Amino acid sequence: MPQIPRELVKSCLEFSTPQRIPRDVWTLPWAQNHYQVQVDDLLRRYPPDLTVACDVYRPSGRMKGNPYVVGEYADDWGCVFTNIQAGVHGEIRKPIISNVGDYKLVRPPYETLPADISAARDKVNRFCAATDKFVRSWCCPRPWERYQFLRGSENAMIDVMLSKDEAEKLLSVIHSFYLAELEFWITTDVDAISFMDDWGSQTQLLIPPSLWRELFKPLYQEYCDFAHAHGKYAFMHSDGQIMEIYPDLIEIGVDALNSQLFCMDMEKLGALAKGRITFWGEIDRQYVMASPDPQAGRDAVRKVAQHLYDPTGGIIAQFELGPASNPAVAFAVFEEWSKVEREHYNPVTRGELA
Predict the structure, then answer these.
(1) Structural domain of 238
(2) Is 72 part of a structural domain of the chain?
(3) Cis omega (within 30 of 0) on the bond before 166?
(4) Would 75 be classed as within a structural domain?
(5) How many angstroms separate the most distant Cα atoms in the chain?
(6) Which of 228, 273, 287, 329 gives 297 a disulfide partner, CB atoms 3.0 to 4.6 angstroms apart?
């Protein structure tokens, strides 16, 4: 019997030989603004197997504007972003707190959390019951990014290096709010909770690995433990060169990691992590997805397959459609993954190596 999408993803995460490679596509408003017809066709021909739960949050009086429209936008924490390109998210220009010692002035948006927990849970559970897709939580804790939104990126770097005790206090304020969010989501029928933080530059981790392990690893450990204690998977995203912390993320129980594989030595990454974590994409969006030649997408898939693919699981075919992405490359990527499947999947043995 064919596996439904939810079963496919779970089989992939558990390395129990999914009948095909699960698919996932992230589409920024930029892509929809520039080639909606192609996006619709892509999603029709290659429907994603993962989705995100419905929104159950209350509106925040601090939110103003639209994050994907040119101009200023304030989020539910009151952080103000400036956007100079329609269809993508802007950047922080003016930190909320000018001194890390003012962490007590930060007011997390607890008012946005569901007021009627039972009604909100029922809404999420109805959403999950109505789809056969693998459902991730709507919330996405991001302690390091939120810290940067509150203090500015440069100040954040200085804080964790020179004012670590005060930085930990601000992190605690942020982390406590995210735990409150997760306390709701783990009681629903979602399949996974998601969290994120962009930790890498093009070439290395943004802070010393030892400092990352001291300040941030325990936070992510709590998220993973929270998820697993309630039968949920833990999904994480992090941009950049993060190979140094891959073993740590495996150790704390991250089930699926979305990272920029093409920033790293893929052969070494395979030796380090293949079979121990699910690679939740991605195909390089800086050069491959923006290439005028669809062959670039096919070649990229073959590189990932060579070093990271295992027919028993551990790969979700994912990419992002954002600024400058070429729809023809997107189609080529999924076409090539289908060829990889045909080379390794034997219907007679129901997914075992041919």
Answers:
(1) 5-58+98-349
(2) no
(3) no
(4) no
(5) 64
(6) 329
| Residue 62's pLDDT band (cuts 50, 70, 90) | very high
> Do residues 321 and 26 lie in contact, with contact meaning Cβ atoms separated by under 8 Å?
yes
CATH value at residue 20: 3.20.20.210
Q: Is 192 exposed, middle or buried (0-12, 13-18, 19+ CB in 10 A)?
A: buried
349 membership: H or E segment, kind and range: none
Cα 156 to chain center, whole Å? Answer: 22
The CA-to-CA distance between both ends of the chain, in Å, stands at: 19
Strands, E, within the chain: which ranges?
23-27, 50-52, 71-74, 80-83, 91-94, 134-136, 192-196, 233-238, 256-259, 278-280, 315-321
* Contact of 29 with 83, CB cutoff 8 Å: no
* pLDDT, tens digit, 9 for 90 and up, residues 254-294: 999 999 999 999 999 999 999 999 999 999 999 999 999 99
One-letter amino acid at 222 equals E
In this structure, which amino acid lies at residue 120? A
Tokens at residue 351, please? Answer: 């997914």
> For residue 327, what are its two tokens?
């729809």
pLDDT at 209 over 80: yes
